Amino acid sequence: MGTKKASGKRKSGGKKDKRPGQGRGTGNSFAGASFERSQVLGSGTQTTKINVQAYAAVPTALNSLPGLPQEFTGREDEIRKILSILDPRSGPGAAIGSVAGLPGVGKTTLAHAVGHAALGKGWFTKVQMVNLRGYDPTPVPPEDALEALLRALGVAAEHIPPTLDERAGLYRSQLDALRREEDRVLILADNASTSDQVRPLLPAGHHAVLVTSRHTLPGLGARLFNLHPLQPDAAVDLLHQRLEVADPDDRRVEDEPTAAEELAALCGYLPLALQIAAALLADDPDQPLSERVRMLTDAGTRLGGLDDGERNLRAVFDECLTRLSHQEADLYRLLGLHPGPDISTPAVAALTDQPADKITPILRQLVRARLLTQNSQARDRWSMHDLLRVHAQEQARITMDRGRVPRRRFEQARTRLTDHYVRHARAADTHFRPPGEAVSTLFTGREQALLWFDAERENLLATTHTHARTQTALDLGFALGRYLEWRRRLQDAVTVRAHALEACQALNDAVNLPGAWNNLGGALQELRRSTEALDAYRTALDLHQQTGNTHGQASAWNNLGGALKELRRYTEAHDAHRTALDLHQQTGNTHGQASAWNNLGTALQELRRHTEAHDAHHTALDLFHLSGNTSGQASAWNNLGTALKELRRYAEALDAYRTALDLHQQTGDTHGQAVTRNNLGTVLKELRRYAEALDAYRTALDLHQQTGDTHGQADIWNNLGMALQELRRYPEALEAHQTALDLHQQTGNTHRQADAWNALGTALKDLRRYPEALDAHQTALDLHQQTGNISGQASAWNNLGTVLMELRRLPEALDAYRTALDLDEQTGDTHGQAVAWNNLGTACRGLERYAEAIAAGEKAIEMLTQEADWARTGEAWAEFAATLNVSGAEASRVREAWDQSATAYARAGDDEAAATSRANAERPSGTGP
């Protein structure tokens, strides 16, 4: 903790020790006297009857505070902040602080800790703690508190006047006398419920008062501190220390760290609840923490499980209700009907059927009572501590069980609340639909609808779950999906779509059933659960065909194509999108046609039919523009950029991506911006503008992190690694590829794991860690074989060959390159074939099979020139020149090859490589480059 416990001997600070009662006219001794229900804690333990020691004879008794529990932890920041106002250097006036918090949060113990720390710093010569019992049935009146304090300060009972004002005057006189003696007193006024209880106890200056209360007590002019539950780590530490105090050999927290974290969370990180749970565990040393977690998991029995026979959390919360007005207690119980973590003022108005301006003052009273918290940023939102919410839910059930009238009233309140959420969710969803469809005027536009969805997301999910298999779940499942996908809350999207489907089935809703299957398929596909998505789409298609719904069939076929593409069944995907296009053309659905053309283009790209893909995306772009769909235009521009990139039309690709980025920024599509930034980086890398590529990738990574898109982050890390390799920053590249691999393993994406292993292998090769590189490429090959990815296998074989070359295992390298070539020929990947031919030529040259090497090099040059990949063409000419040189070819032929290499590199914008090739052209034949 860093705080010091008070000792019986106080520091003199170099001055003569001054004892209370000495040098003053009140030198009365109270040794052996007893005071019934004394409110002052001096020496001894506070009970209903306290013996007060002879303070004149033992001055340090005034400094006595209860020792801190050994498990006290996690309050260092709070102690530091409160000490800052108690510091005598903070100003000449009285230092007054007020600590407010909900019951059980540890206000009293914190006050003790502050007292010990302040004494340890030598700031006070005396500390008095008075318990005002503000929340007992009969709180201590201020005149009684003053009597207790005056007696503790050495005033004889017969000298204490009868009235409040007179006692307050005498109290101030006593404190002023202490000031003149250079003594400074800290008064700890614990458990106050009103400002009136405390105000007479405030000193005029020099001294200090620290008040604890469930209320803020703003009328005191005090510095206010809101005490919150412990941080998770500190809560677990409290459990651990409390169990260790009971039994030093208790290792349950270390043995079950996850269960310990769950238990702390179930206790709401509330010190009192944690202490009760620890006491119950200490009483049953054989009980695993996981068993205690299971006992507390059910909200209906949680409070009952936090009762150790001496302390009962439910009783503490019940007592809070007795101090509320009828309206406040009724609202507290009604809030127990709300399933989510917080609630807005309009939602409370719907729940209570009261105008917002009438219900807000009652909400604020609950805040003052520490039964509710008002959001400091969004002032119209309110929340309860987890355990208070459980208590409010209990209270709601108890009220409903009292009879038909209260049950009906509460059920009507619940219906109003769910209707409020459904109505607003449906209205907000209209702003995420394609252009041309009617939009609700309940929201001014997409931005306002998005803000509402963001604020209410958790409440809407909780409402959907609470009302499973009902019309509410169906309505919210349909209304939330587009927003959740927009925000990339993909698992939540699957959950609500599944709830909608289940509700359709439970309600026998045949009209919405096909749409529910289709929507579930879309959510599953976003999570890369493509096989399940395919099954869902097929079910939707069958149902639409049964009802003859052409529009529904077209949508299902389009989505089917997307799932087939993810499963690398590109020809089937192409056919599905073509079918969708035909059906959308039959119905005249312009937006549907645009979407089908866009998806058809992506399938054509995977089939390496890039010119056709380019045309398809252009058609999609025109149709999206015609329908005024900005998001669709952004997607089409992005895909058009990819087609242009594959056609090596890099400048046009850059323009296309930048246009897509501008449109995504207009619509606020963070995910779309991330994808486009990634694509921009890839083109910049192809243009050898590596620093710019790196910036683009990093921006894309930040955007994916904002949306929590783990798949996207993994892809970016892999691309970052490749850009870092080009910049020869190999250790950073290795770390980036390892991060990509870890993320892909988290998501279970085998195909992407294979890509990451392949990239990891190239980074290891660059670091000359050849055996590890070989293992990485072999792992990539194995994974690509598992998924049936022939293109991926070809890439892995090619990279394997390169590492084998470095290990001088040339025959094996040659075999690897030939396998890569065969696989690229199977897929029709001309560019891949060209790279494999170039590598084959290099391997043959190493084996002194010069004729084969020359033939392979010529093949590579021809194909790369056709592909207009000028960087790799320059590389191929360079390898060809080296082969000609060692094979004894004529000097003019070698020189011509180097010149061709320089020309190709120059076209690629790689001036450094071009200069190197020109220099080699000037070398005499027969010398190495």
Name some characteristics of this structure.
single chain; 929 residues; mainly alpha; 3-stranded antiparallel beta sheet; disordered N terminus
Helical content (DSSP H or I, runs of 4+): 55-70%
First-last Cα distance: 69 Å
Question: Which parts are unreliable, with pLDDT below 50 for 5 consecutive residues or more?
Answer: 1-63
Number of DSSP strands?
11
Helical element count? 40
- What gross morphology would you assign? elongated
Average pLDDT confidence is 90
Describe the structure.
With 929 residues, the protein is mainly alpha-helical. The chain is 65% helix and 5% strand. Strands 2-5-6-7-4-8 form a six-stranded mixed β-sheet. Strands 9-11-10 form a three-stranded antiparallel β-sheet. It has a two-stranded antiparallel sheet with strand order 1-3. The two termini are 69 Å apart. The model is unreliable at 1-63 (pLDDT under 50).
Task: Give a short synopsis of this structure.
By secondary structure, this protein is mainly α. The chain has 40 helices and eleven strands. Helices cover 65% and strands 5% of the residues.
Protein topology:
Elements: E1 34-36, E2 40-41, E3 49-51, H1 76-86, E4 95-100, H2 107-120, E5 126-131, H3 142-152, H4 164-180, E6 185-192, H5 195-198, E7 208-213, E8 223-226, H6 232-246, H7 252-255, H8 257-266, H9 271-283, H10 289-297, H11 313-321, H12 326-335, E9 342-344, H13 345-352, H14 356-368, E10 373-374, E11 381-383, H15 386-400, H16 404-429, H17 446-466, H18 471-486, H19 490-507, H20 513-526, H21 530-547, H22 550-566, H23 570-587, H24 590-606, H25 610-627, H26 630-646, H27 650-667, H28 670-686, H29 690-707, H30 710-726, H31 730-747, H32 750-766, H33 770-787, H34 790-806, H35 810-827, H36 830-846, H37 850-867, H38 870-887, H39 891-908, H40 911-921
Parallel strand pairs: 4-7, 4-8, 5-6, 6-7
Antiparallel strand pairs: 1-3, 2-5, 9-11, 10-11
Helix pairs in contact: 1-2, 3-4, 6-8, 6-9, 8-10, 12-14, 12-15, 13-16, 16-17, 16-18, 17-18, 18-19, 19-20, 20-21, 20-22, 21-22, 22-23, 22-24, 23-24, 24-25, 24-26, 25-26, 26-27, 26-28, 27-28, 28-29, 28-30, 29-30, 30-31, 30-32, 31-32, 32-33, 32-34, 33-34, 34-35, 34-36, 35-36, 36-37, 36-38, 37-38, ...
